[in-house]
Design brief:
0% strand, mainly alpha
Length: 90
């Protein structure tokens, strides 16, 4: 139950990600390797044409895409320095 609540809070805070991502890429604290890895994750998500659950199945296909995007965003937060996490409350 605690894990579900944590993920729900993560989804609610999604609006904070845009300024967080901008500062993540501008920060000197984040290594170029991590920045490159994030770009590769996002690019592979955008370029990968196949889904686990096809989008034509309605809501289930969209939930699949949202879950993958949230997973990528969680990985970005894990790679970020503590200062950025604390600043944006992530």
């Amino acid at each position: 139950m605690k894990r579900i609540w944590k993920r729900l809070r993560f989804v609610i805070k999604i609006r904070r990600f845009f300024p967080f991502l901008i500062e993540f890429f501008r920060s000197q604290e984040v290594s170029m390797l991590k920045k490159t890895l994030v770009i590769l994750l996002l690019a592979s998500y955008a370029a990968f044409p196949f889904d686990i659950i096809p989008d034509w199945l309605g809501l289930f296909g969209v939930i699949d895409d949202v879950a993958v995007l949230l997973f990528i965003l969680q990985q970005i937060v894990k790679m970020a320095p503590s200062r950025l996490k604390n600043k944006y409350g992530l």
